[in-house]
Amino acid sequence: MPKLKTGFNPFYAALMIVGVAFAISAIVYGIMALRELRGVVPAPGQGGLMAWMSRHGEWLLGVELGLLILLSLAAMLTDDYWFKKQKQPREAESLAEETAVGSGTEAEEPKPATSPPPEAE
Hints:
The protein is an all-alpha fold. It is built from 3 helices and no strands.
């Protein structure tokens, strides 16, 4: 049996990258929110990741969530396009095999030659 080749949908790769970035951003934003609840607020002039997330975290998470939605839809809607190239040869092979089996064109074992039965006297 030939090895099955699989296609590659680039939207899945982009989806993984944006998904990991979203997960990291959500964790950092959660830590920042917990710190603010406990009273640890970054000073206005203070830099750093927590201060940046305090100012821009909601916007970042919104953009990443929007990208996740768009990339998910794009990946699902283009699956047929990216995997069509691999489906066609496999479908042709399976159709040829089914036709050969169904039509009796496959190689049959030769039947042994038989002599006619002896006539009764």
